[in-house]
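Field reference: sequence -> structure
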Amino acid sequence: MAALFIDSKYQGKGYGKELINFIKEKRKNIQLKVYKKNDEAVNFYLRNGFVKKEELLDEQTAFNGCAVERQSFTLW
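Structure field:
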């Protein structure tokens, strides 16, 4: 999966959590990156069993962020 987006009018209804749980059932390890300043996304992954792994700097955009794995993620 390249990205996870939930339309704002459907956020907070459990759809994102359902998608993450489905992926967890299918994959042992999950890696992802999330923009560090996207507090809602960072907190979503923290609430769903992920932990921060490392902080990165995206060389193309110069944004700081984080990478995420099944039990960890990295900020960029």
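Note: The chain has a mean pLDDT of 79.
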